[in-house]
Amino acid sequence: MARINENYLKLQSRYLFSEIGKRTKNFIAANPKAPVIRLGIGDTTLPLPPSIIDAFHKGIEEMKSKDSYKGYGPEQGYDFLRVAIAKNDFGSRGAKIDPEEIFISDGSKCDTGNILDIFGKNKIAISDPAYPVYVDTNVMIGNTGPANEFGEYEGIVYLRSTEQSEFKPPLPDRHVDLIYLCSPNNPTGSVLNREDLKKWVEYARKEKSIILFDAAYEAFIEDPQLPHSIFEIEGADECAIEFRSFSKTAGFTGVRCAFTVIPKKLKGYDEKGNSHDIHSLWNRRHTTKFNGVSYPVQVAAAAVYTEEGKKQTREVINYYKENAKIIMEGLKAANFKFFGGINAPYIWLKTPNNMSSWDFFDLLLQKLNIVGTPGSGFGRAGEGYFRLTAFGDREKTKEAMERIKAYKW
Ligand code: MLT
User: Fold this and answer.
1) 163 SS3 class
2) Which residues contact 190 (CB under 8 A, 6 or more apart)?
3) What's the mean pLDDT when you consider all of the chain?
4) Exposure string (b/e) for 121-141, b if CB count within 10 Å is 16 or more?
5) How many Å apart are CA 318 and CA 309, to the nearest integer?
6) d(Cα 17, Cα 14) in Å, to the nearest integer?
7) pLDDT in tens, 22-46
8) pTM to 2 decimals?
9) Which of 134, 186, 255, 346 most suits a substitution to test ligand 1, by most atoms within 8 Å of the C-beta?
10) Do residues 376 and 386 touch, judged by C-beta distance below 8 A?
């Protein structure tokens, strides 16, 4: 009799974006002519910039001849990419990260989930609302008890991010071991400033906790005062792991390339209180379970850091930022209350007339044929809110906002 991992039975519903996909598919099946506009999942819509495509082709061409053919690469990633990341994403911002502290992977979603492999039973704190992967992967691995009537799991400390706190999570009121933070935030679009991050680093160092810092949307920060990496804060290399991705920065959602930074100074503890290097544990896990990202993909990712690549990816990001402006202007004209959208690609709006998030989802889909993401799908504190993405097509984004403005709310 093959036994299953019963933790999976505790999961409350299907994965948020699968549920949205299912409801949208059913609606289209029943209304095949409906002009549906998708502003739900944060999936990029512009093609890869030309210099990145050229590099991608070159990487593939190298596979053609015996001299330049590549078989298995280093599991942690090729040096040319790790060096470019260390210099451009960290060194240039005063954060000292050694290329060896960077692990190239096929996505931040996988890394934020897989990282739990190297940790034991811990007290987990997760900001609420949050990217659902943080909670679900903790349930899957057995770090929680069952869910209560609000769909919240026993054992998780939920850090409520509310309108009053500008959607920034409060410090835990007790000891926790692992803390998930996301800045710029998915879904609320709020960003932690230097002072905020200093408080978190201070807390984590005092408690010997580790911050799992998801910075997948850092490229959208436009305020020069805001930090792009937690490693810009002194002492963070003793208490944080950072997740980054080429998905939203350079349109790699379909290509797949990301990286995780684990400083060599970072320690975790065994039952007896002896310290161990987290870097070595992850290296062991990574080399055992992963064979690296394909060579042409890494060559394409490295092209993001060339002068041409930087300019072209900036143009793509500016296109999405202009979409965000169009969404915000439309919402303002329709008298919605909203947040985010400036240093982040997500706009977090308050539903009109105190509608629940899913009721608003249904209304938008059925009456205006627009797909968005219900705030409650990101956690209890997201109830009564709704997320729109700036990653859509320009004309469709404009059309969606015209429909929202014309509707009698
Ligand atoms: C989102 O819409 O929240 C993201 O696109 C999901 C993801 O990055 O996996």
Assistant:
1) coil
2) 161, 166, 167, 168, 183, 184, 339, 340, 344
3) 97
4) ebbbbbbbbbbbbbbbbbbbb
5) 14
6) 8
7) 999 999 999 999 999 999 999 999 9
8) 0.97
9) 186
10) no
